[in-house]
Amino acid sequence: MHEPQPETVQIHINGKSVRVATGSTVAVALTLTEQACRISVRHEERGPLCAMGICMECRVTIDGVPSRLACQTLCQPNMDVRTHG
Predict the structure, then answer these.
(1) Number of domains forming the structure of the chain
(2) Side-chain half-sphere of 33: how many Cα atoms within 13 Å?
């Protein structure tokens, strides 16, 4: 018998609490909250481009680990996401 999963999960993006649907990636959470993943050397906001982990544009710090790919990481309860910029 499987335990039912909660319909939403709460994470923290740059210190702000955000609720997203269970099974959402960090890239989805960032997009829903209109947050850039990082700022380029030309001072442009960058975000998920390929959504397959190839372009590396969605790099963020998750739970203190830098350069994690937001498009390949599922949101976990109380995850701490920090964008680069």
Answers:
(1) 1
(2) 22
Q: Rounded to two decimals, what is the model's pTM?
A: 0.87
Query: 16 CB contacts (<8 Å, ≥6 apart)?
Result: 33
Do the Cβ atoms of 23 and 3 come closer than 8 Å? Answer: no
**What is the model's pLDDT at position 84?**
81
47: nearest Cα among 26, 73, 17: 26
Average pLDDT across the chain, whole number: 92
Q: Are 59 and 11 in contact (CB under 8 A)?
A: no
> Residue 52 maps to which CATH number?
3.10.20.30
Q: Does some domain include residue 2? A: no
Task: Assess if residue 61 is contained within a domain.
Answer: yes
CA distances from 79 to 3, 37, 45, 50, 64 (A): 21, 15, 22, 23, 10
